[in-house]
Amino acid sequence: MNSSNQSEKLNKDSIDDTKEAGNRSPVTIIGLGPMGKAMVSAFLNRGYEVTVWNRTSSKADELVTNGAIRASTISEALAPNELVILSLTDYDAMYAIFESVSEKLTGKVIVNLSSDTPEKAREAAKWLTGRGAWHLTGGVLASPSEIGNGESTTLYSGPSDIFEAHRKALEVLTGTDYKGEDPGLAMLFYQTQIDVFWTSMLSYLHALAVARANGITAEQFLPYVSKILFTMPNLLEFYTPRIDTGMYHGDVEKLAMGLASIKHVVHTSKEAGVDPSLPAAVLDVFERGIASGHADDSFTSLIELFEKSGDRP
Q: What gap in Å lies between CA 262 and CA 264, rounded to an integer?
């Protein structure tokens, strides 16, 4: 490329960047914990005007230095922008913040990226609709360090036209996965994945505690736990159609075999002087499955036990 063409390209890129900046709608972010701060930084890095508010005002100091606009009250935070993103502990925190200024919510799009239950998300959507606002539920499947990375994902649900109108801004934070109009759907998909995440991470910590009790370091254990986790996607792919069709035949493995296996894990934990409560809870589920007549079925038959045991304490 000659210097003349290169100059023309640089000028065009500069004009395009200016146009894009002009199309960026300003945003308000409420809640400045680690996740909220990461979101503010992501928007600032992309040239957005960002208004911020937090109960502890000093949490905004560094962000203001970097270009954010500090609102001294929640009314000031809501006033300038249509798009308002919440990064709070739970949905109750939203009510605590908004109830006294509910008349200021008219015309606002509230993107609630706080964690709670699907039903709480549905209730919040109704509450905001009653005050003239729109609600988008969000479930962020990323850590603060992954905010601003398009390969990370946030789940969304709520009015499709509202989501589409603000998709570009939301994609500043992560990639987006729209689940549908029901405001509870994004939270349902989010919580089921968090269920798998924390259960898996606790099983890793428990296994590592047993390993450490026997002189094995986390570094030595890493390739082995990584290998078994690497096999999981293939197992899930194998079992998925069977579960969807209710086929729990014990042609590959039987629940009775699994019961013996998990008993050995509990005994190994006790021998190592490690709290056995986590594998003991798994053992309890297996034993109840056996008692329900599934000894010769696959361990996947336990899903029926879970589905019928929602009222257990």
A: 5
Q: Residue 235's CB: how many other CB atoms inside 10 A?
A: 10
At 221, phi and psi to the nearest 5?
-80, -25
Q: What is the mean pLDDT of residues 170-188?
A: 98
Residue 310 above 80 pLDDT? no
Closest residue by Cα to residue 27 from 48, 41, 45: 48
Q: Give CA separation, 110 vs 46, 131, 306, in Å.
A: 21, 12, 35
Give the span between the Cα atoms of 136 and 111, in whole angstroms.
Answer: 5
Q: Which tokens hold the place of 266?
A: 């509990």
Q: Answer whether 41's CB lies under 8 Å from 148's CB.
A: yes
Q: Are 190 and 115 in contact (CB under 8 A)?
A: yes
Q: Is 178 helix (H, G, I), strand (E, B) or coil?
A: strand
> Cβ distance 43 to 21 under 8 Å?
no
**3-class DSSP assignment, residue 200:** helix
Burial of 288 (0-12, 13-18, 19+ CB in 10 A): middle
pLDDT tens digit string along 219-264? 999 999 999 999 999 999 999 999 999 999 999 999 999 999 999 9
Q: How many CB atoms lie within 10 A of CB 113?
A: 24
Q: Give the integer Cα–Cα distance in Å for 188 and 166.
A: 22
What integer is the mean pLDDT of 200-228?
A: 98
Q: Model pTM?
A: 0.87
Cα 144 to Cα 38: distance, rounded to the nearest angstrom: 6
The helix (run of H) or strand (run of E) holding residue 272 is: none
Are 29 and 51 contacting, i.e. CB atoms less than 8 angstroms apart?
yes
pLDDT tens for each residue of 74-112: 999 999 999 999 999 999 999 999 999 999 999 999 999
Q: Residue 286 has which token pair? A: 């297996």
Q: What is the pLDDT of residue 23?
A: 58
